[in-house]
Predict the structure.
Amino acid sequence: MAENTIFSLAGLSFGSALGFAGAFGGFQAFVLVLLLGVVGLLAGRALTGELDLGELLGTVVTRRKSP
């Protein structure tokens, strides 16, 4: 139950940050905050072991090499 609350609060915080970036910084700031948030999410998942970056990057490299 506490895990769901943490995700809800994180989503609320991230949404508020995106809203402020869009309102005060324009579209470019909105996109920058969104991209940095996604990078932070991927880094956090990789650090906790929920995401295997080697497998993810290996899939991308395999797709580029195949015709």
The chain has a mean pLDDT of 77.
